[in-house]
Design brief:
43% helix, eight-stranded parallel barrel
């Protein structure tokens, strides 16, 4: 397949945010906010993003005491009532350990409450805590995902379904309600670094949400190529094969300010979930211009997004900034810079 044949056929390059709602002590004060306050800050961040003109807001799923969010559709339903236009997505739904019928009905309900703004990013997840919690075997990791994505997609096609599978009880001429406002709920596949996941997303004709959390973007380009090639080989129209990029990052007025402000929180985040803390020198290296780590001034983040677009021809960019106990005031300022200084320039450059 020639990559030159890939064009961005969508009216607007989408830029937004996602959060996992981690509950980590602020490294400066040593205090950890409550889950209730964290949820309120997530809703406030989404409201600010909506008012500032960003396009998409995602909420992740974890089942641990150091995260505030275990039920994305509930939080997203609250956000729907506080916002007007911004699209609302899971980021991601751990599809291997959720009942697809319940998932579809929850997001169909969200779609109705939001006026047609609901989406699902389905993935396998970076943590496995949901497997023992909901009674699934880790050795069935891949088979569960394959069966559940098949059923989830079938639920979107028909109001009444008959279905048989290996892990879930059979469905015999049963009604699936409510139906969403959108003719079809958008479903994306979350992809880390696995070529098979990229191939499956393309084969199914679903959007691919590429988690680009570090390293150089060039290393992930083969995943986009595999995705589009598999999609076209399966008979899907190239214009329907959408790519999104999700990254960690932070924006401030200058690059030095961004590095200085974000470092202690990101190091604390890594210490909690990766078991290691990062030196300032290492942090500076992973945030260098050639990496995907989107930390810097608005101009630097713009350059990174545009460079990635040359590689991936993606339609959407999502940034996670509220990590490691970062105070909401800093997050709010970074959201405003993303919306006012980054998004307009990126969109203008990509329409040329």
């Amino acid at each position: 397949m020639s990559n030159g044949s890939v064009t961005n056929t969508f009216k607007r390059f989408e830029i937004g945010l996602y959060t996992f709602g981690d509950l980590i002590p602020d490294p400066a004060s040593g205090t950890t906010i409550s889950a209730q306050r964290r949820m309120k800050e997530i809703i406030d961040a989404a409201k600010l993003a909506d008012e500032a003109g960003l396009d998409i807001f995602g909420v992740g799923e974890h089942h641990r005491l150091d995260f505030a969010v275990s039920s994305p559709p509930v939080i997203l339903a609250a956000i729907a009532q506080a916002t007007k236009q911004i699209k609302l997505t899971s980021a991601t739904t751990v599809l291997s350990t959720v009942d697809p019928v319940r998932l579809f009905e929850d997001f169909a309900t969200l779609d109705l409450l939001s006026g047609g703004r609901a989406e699902i990013i389905a993935g396998r997840g970076a943590f496995v805590d949901s497997f023992p919690l909901f009674g699934y075997k880790l050795e069935d990791y891949h088979a569960l995902f394959a069966e559940n994505i098949e059923l989830l997609l079938e639920l979107g096609k028909q109001e009444t379904i008959t279905w048989n599978g290996q892990f879930r009880s059979s469905l015999s001429d049963l009604e699936i309600a409510p139906r969403p406002k959108q003719p079809e709920l958008p479903v994306w596949i979350g992809v880390g670094g696995t070529p098979q996941s990229a191939h499956n997303a393309g084969r199914l004709g679903l959007g691919m949400n590429l988690a680009l959390l570090g390293g150089t973007p060039e290393r992930a380009k083969p995943l986009a190529d595999i995705y589009r090639q598999a999609g076209q080989q399966a008979g899907h129209e190239p214009s329907k094969l959408r790519v999104a990029v999700s990254s960690h990052g932070y924006i401030s007025d200058t690059s030095q300010q961004a590095l200085h402000e974000f470092y202690p929180y990101y190091s604390s985040y890594l210490g909690q979930f990766a078991g290691r803390k990062m030196s300032q020198a290492e942090f500076g290296r992973i945030a260098s211009p050639e990496t995907a780590f989107a930390v810097g001034s608005p101009e630097q983040v713009i350059e990174k997004i545009l460079h990635q677009h040359e590689l991936f021809k993606h339609d959407r960019f999502m940034l996670q900034m509220d990590v490691g106990g970062m105070p909401f005031g800093k997050v709010a300022t970074a959201i405003e810079l993303l919306a006012a200084k980054v998004a307009p320039v990126v969109r203008r450059e990509l329409t040329r």
